[in-house]
Each structure stands twice: as C-alpha cells, then as structure tokens.
Design goal:
single chain; about 500 residues; alpha/beta; eight-stranded parallel barrel
C-alpha cells in the first residue's frame, strides 16, 4: 500500500487514449485500452487487481501494438503496450492489502449533500458537460452520481466562436483551459422539462440546479421553478467570470452584501437545500462564504473558474481565443488550477464560522488522487468538468475504483470519515513551520543516468550543493545542502527521494 505512482505515466505518453481502442479489439484477452487509461489516471494498483492470474502477454506477439492507431499513423509504434501490461503484472505480484477487486467494498463511496443521498461523491459541474438531457443521461449510465446542470437564466444567450483556448502539457493534452462560454441557451421551460425527464428516468441521481437571476424576483422564481421540476438542490451562480457585465456572476460573489441578499431570496422561495457557488477572483473567500451562511445557505461550492488570458498570438497580437480579431477575459480551469482550488477549500474548511455547511469542491480534479485531496481538505462532494471535456464521461470508472481502493486500504467506510482530515496540519501562514532542521535528499544510483539535471538546477536555482563528476555521478556537498528538495522535483528519472532523516541544526 504505497499510494505512490507505481508506473510513471510518462512511459505511455504516446498513447492517445482512444475511444473504442483498437488495442483492446486486437487483444481479445485483455481490455488493453482500459488498462492504459487506468495507468494514465494513476489507478494502476486497481488495474493490476483486474488482471487474470495467467499472464496472456507471455510469448504474445503483441497484436495490440500492431493495431494501435499510432502505429497506423506514422509507421512506428511509440506505445509499448505489452511492456506496460507486463509492468502491471509486476504491480500485481507486490503485496496488496486487497487481493482482488471482488474484495473491494464500493459502499464506502456513498455520501450525501445536505442530507440527500449520493451513490458516490462525483457530480458533473455546471457547464457544457451537463447541458442536455442526453448528456446527463449518458453520464448517469456511466456511473456519475449526479449533475449540476448548466446555469439557467431568463435572459437570451448567444455564444461566440471559437470560445475555448488552452495551455498544453503531456500527450498534447491541455493542463490549463480557458473558456468564454456563458450560460444555458435553452429556455427556462425547456430546462424544466429536462429536469422532469431526468428525475423520472433516473430518480436516484442528484440534480443540482444552477441558476442566475438579474434581480431578486428572478433569483426566487428560478429557485422555485427548479424545485417544482424535480431538482434536489439549488446552486446559486455568484461566480461566472464571463457574465460580469451588468452586475452578474462574479460581480455578485465579490460583494458579500449581495451574496446574503440573493441567497436569502432563494432560500425563502424553496424548501430544498441552497448552495452558493463562490468566485475565486478574490483575496479571501471567507467573507462571501460567511455572507452566504448569513443568508441561509446550506452549503458552498468552490471554486469556479479564474479570470485569465491564456496567450497572445505573436503575429496578430490578439489574445486567445480570437473572435473576429478580438478576445476577452475568460474562466481558467483544469489541472493547473488545482493548487488554487485546494487553497480555497482549505480556507473554507478551517473557518469555524462555516461549521455545518456542506462544501462541494471542484477545480482541476482529473483522477482519484485529486478527489481524495479535496475530500481531505473538507469537500463532502466533488464536481468535475474540464477532465470530462478532455477524456469523456468514462473517467468515472477510475475515479470511483481508485478512490474506493484507497478508502478500503486506509480503513475508511464512508466519505465523511476522511473529510477534513488534512486540515489540522495545514496553516495559512508559513510562520508556524519548524525551521531548525534539514532533510537531505537520497540518490538511487541504479535509476540515475547521469543527466546532471539536478546539479544544473541546484547550481542555478538552488544552493550549489550538487556536482556532476566527470564519471557522470552526482556528488552531494552536505555543508551547502539546505534540504530544499528542488533536485527531487526536477529529476526526470525519479532517482532522487527524501531520505526521511531530519538533521537538527546547531
């Protein structure tokens, strides 16, 4: 039970995570595509438990690799599928707390939002991924516990094209994502019909209705209509960065008095739980959260997207995305915003004035480890959009199985048991941290290839404590090392780790 990356996903960067993967069709003994997907989403330990006892890769000619679309595209194969599955078998032979997927108790994933049951903590967040009946139905069939439907409003929506841009990372997939999309372009009645149909066909799924009003009357009317159409709870959109003009969206979330006023109006108009979705475009989220509680909110949703510019075209000088030669601020999301999201979740979780409020967390959740981090810092439920836009609703398989395996190994029988466990060790200020000791790095000579990246970073960005010898070996100067661990972070071979031994300074 390591909870560390057992297989480095950089070893499979050539994989494009196909829909209906050809490798799975070619193998017929293993669902290769699903196994690769689990590795990508850091769920390799669960994947190893799904493997048959007899290794079908032994003496196999790897038809999976021959069928790979990358092989067809350029005549070579960059995804060593057979090797990756062999390594999953190595993971399988390691000591497991759980011997088989049949031994995993998935009931631990059951939770609730303000007392309303959820089969697992994962919901789609308010966005294009939850904007039609068909999309929500397919997500529910895939295993999502519910959906926060794309924000409903009374005013007309006319979207621009294009409306997305991104910063790319591994596998040419985006790590940061900007959108200038607005709200639901369906009429209120069309959306109410969708709610009624979803609730009829999927009565156990959680429908969270996101709404945005232009005045007090609209906030109350929309909340009541959503309740009457079958919504389980209301989410008040006080945070959309793309609707700021005219005092909407994040304009409201930055003014605590408005948060209190409109929350109270929604609470008075309905009897179901009301959750305030707050903006991260503030120095502190606590004033708005406390204002929401003052208005009667039952919970807080955080974070929404961050106002951003993702890039500027160096030829046209227009920032992205360009809409007929013009652009605008938009909402930034994806893996890149997770550290900011966790910061706000921790702030809310530690605020004693907010005790008793449900926190539904979002912002950069891509895999089960991300989900666990949000829960440990106080989130009782989770919402996902950007990762679904990248990989599809299918990611729910690894979100659920990875989190359930972790919880079983740690002995958690419910989400509530682990909610907030990481808050006591976290401090908003660094002033409280111990500063009279050093933990030196440890070097694995078997993994080290002598690239010198660690020595280069230490020389130019650290304390000149590392030297690359003529034999391409790393030498540590203990008198200069301050234990900052920059070397651990930059090593491409993961050959450096913490020694775990703390040297007390005199």
């Amino acid at each position: 039970m390591s909870f560390e990356k057992l297989i480095n996903r950089s070893d499979m960067l050539g994989c494009v995570l196909c829909q209906n993967p050809s490798c799975s069709e070619a193998c017929r003994k293993l669902d290769c595509g699903k196994l690769l997907r689990s590795i990508w989403f850091e769920n390799e330990e669960y994947a190893s438990l799904t493997l048959p006892e007899a290794n079908p890769c032994t003496d196999c000619q790897a038809p999976c690799e021959k069928a790979c679309v990358k092989n067809k595209a350029d005549g070579t194969n960059t995804v060593k599928i057979k090797n990756l599955i062999e390594r999953l078998y190595n993971v399988k032979t390691q000591s497991h707390d759980i011997e088989s997927v049949r031994d995993i108790d998935f009931s631990c994933l059951k939770t609730d939002i303000c007392g309303i049951p959820l089969e697992n903590p994962f919901l789609l967040s308010s966005s294009v991924v939850a904007s039609t009946y068909d999309m929500c139905a397919r997500a529910f069939e895939a295993g999502w516990a519910g959906a926060c439907f794309k924000t409903i409003c009374n005013f007309p929506i006319h979207e621009c094209s294009p409306r997305f841009s991104a910063l790319n990372g591994d596998n040419n997939s985006f790590i940061g994502f900007k959108n200038i999309e607005q709200l639901s372009d369906h009429s209120v009645e069309e959306n109410m019909q969708i709610f009624r149909q979803l609730k009829k066909n999927y009565p156990s799924k959680f429908i969270l209705a996101s709404i945005m009003g232009q005045n007090e009357e609209e906030w109350g009317t929309l909340a009541k209509k959503c309740q009457d159409a079958g919504a389980d709870a209301i989410e008040l959109n006080f945070s959309c960065p793309n609707m700021a003009e005219g005092g909407l969206g994040s304009d409201i979330g930055q003014v605590p008095e408005l948060v209190t006023r409109f929350t109270r109006i929604a609470k008075e108009a309905c009897t179901i739980p009301v959750i305030a979705k707050l903006t991260p475009n503030v120095a502190s989220m606590s004033p708005a959260a406390e204002a929401a509680k003052k208005g009667g909110a039952d919970g807080i949703a955080a974070i929404n997207t961050i106002k951003s510019i993702t890039g500027v075209n160096l030829h046209t000088y227009v920032s992205q995305p360009s809409v007929h030669g013009k652009s605008a601020l938009g909402g930034y999301s994806g893996a890149a915003v997770k550290p900011i999201a966790l910061r706000f979740i921790a702030e809310l979780g530690q605020n004693k004035e907010l005790a008793g409020l449900h926190i539904t967390g979002m912002g950069g959740i891509e895999n089960w480890t991300d989900a666990a981090e949000f829960i440990l810092l106080g989130s009782g439920s989770l919402q996902v959009t950007t990762s679904v836009m990248k990989y599809g609703y299918r990611i729910i398989d690894d979100l659920k199985s990875g989190l359930a395996l972790y919880m079983n190994q740690k002995g958690f029988t419910s989400i509530s048991q682990m909610t907030g466990l990481g808050l006591d060790s976290f401090h908003l200020s660094t002033d409280t941290l111990e500063r009279d000791s050093i933990i030196f790095p440890r070097f694995d000579t078997k993994k080290c290839i002598g690239c010198g990246r660690c020595a280069l970073s230490c020389a130019d960005g650290g304390h000149q404590a590392l030297e690359l010898t003529p034999e391409r070996k790393i030498r540590l100067n203990g008198k200069k090392c301050v234990g900052c661990h920059l070397c651990i972070l930059v090593c491409p071979q993961r050959a450096i780790s913490s020694s775990g031994k703390r040297l007390i300074l005199k």
